[in-house]
Design a protein that fits this description.
heterodimer; A: 183 residues; mainly alpha; elongated; B: 129 residues; 8 helices; 72% helix
């Protein structure tokens, strides 16, 4: 038998399994579909498939050669999927490695910062300086308000006619002049 | 000059401080100065500050200036000044003196009908508040 003939037979066995299955297709025995030369399980030990004959889906009957090639292509693609799956696993492993490294680095940094805050008071100088600056701003604001209040209190003790009135007139004239300039 | 520019103006702040000092100055002459200079100012914001200062003094003389005088306080031509004065009157904790001045204005024959009408309206508002 030549190699070509053997290949044809092999191809025939692969793509024409329905001939062997026809004798066992009346059962729902999954082993019956196997390409055994002799039926080991002759009895239908499972639920009878006769009642469900109409609903039965055959994966082998009435398949054209082109359909079988398409299915074989599909099976081949499953193998490719397998290799892609392994590639995916590899990439996941790589991502996990990177995430793990990142987490470890972050954790180390957090610990480093925490240790600095707890152990070394000098490192809190920046925060302390910031707080001090905030207090400076508050001091300035209170100084402005305090200055204004002091001025008002001082003027409130002056004589209204002889002291405050001239100041009032002068300030009002200056304000009117400002308004004319803006206009 | 808008209100923001006015508030940032150095001279306006000086005027404001002077008015504030006259508000707490115990001398009765303060009312005369506020009336003479403040309420006669051409600047609405200054008239507004002066009217509110006169109300805050919560004295018969100071309240009379902003209630009985045509063109001043609640009778000001500027709606902002008039409304601001009314608001200040409504926010007084002790309204007795203000009510007395308002009743006096309403019942007196010396004042314009417009002044009386304004006084009546403000009295009604104060009674409700």
């Amino acid at each position: 038998m030549s190699t070509i003939e053997r290949l044809n037979q092999f191809s025939h066995r692969i793509f024409n399994t329905s001939q062997n299955e026809q004798s066992t297709s009346r059962t729902s025995n999954p082993f019956a579909a196997s390409n055994f030369q002799k039926n080991i399980l002759t009895e239908d030990v499972f639920e009878s498939s006769k009642a469900k004959q109409n609903d039965k889906v055959s994966f082998t009957g009435n398949l054209t050669a082109s359909s079988k090639r398409i299915y074989s292509t599909f099976v081949g693609s499953i193998n490719d999927m397998g290799s892609k799956f392994y590639e995916g696993i590899e990439s996941i492993k790589a991502i996990y490695g990177r995430v793990k490294d990142s987490v470890i680095n972050t954790w180390n940094k957090i610990q480093e910062i925490g240790n600095k805050e707890v152990n070394v008071n000098i490192n809190l100088d920046g925060a302390r300086e910031l707080l001090t600056k905030e207090y400076h701003i508050k001091d300035i604001a209170s100084a402005i308000v305090g200055g204004k209040n002091r001025e008002i209190t001082r003027m409130s003790k002056m004589d209204p006619h002889s002291e405050v009135k001239p100041m009032f007139q002068q300030a009002l004239e200056a304000l009117e002049a400002d308004m004319v300039m803006v206009a | 000059m808008n209100s923001n520019m006015m508030k940032n103006n150095k001279n306006f702040n000086k005027v404001s401080n002077i008015i504030e000092s006259l508000t707490i100055n115990p001398s009765p002459d303060s009312v005369a100065v506020l009336e003479e200079i403040g309420t006669n100012s051409t600047i609405d914001e200054v008239r507004e500050l002066t009217s509110r200062a006169l109300v805050r003094r919560n004295e018969f003389e100071s309240l009379s200036v902003v209630i009985e005088n045509r063109g001043k306080g609640i009778n000001d031509m500027s709606t902002v000044v008039a409304m601001s004065t009314i608001n200040e009157l409504l926010s007084l904790e002790n309204k007795e003196e203000a009510m007395r001045v308002l009743e006096n204005t309403i019942s007196s024959e010396h004042f314009d009908d417009e002044v009386k009408e304004n006084a009546r309206s403000v009295k009604a508002l104060m009674a409700l508040s």
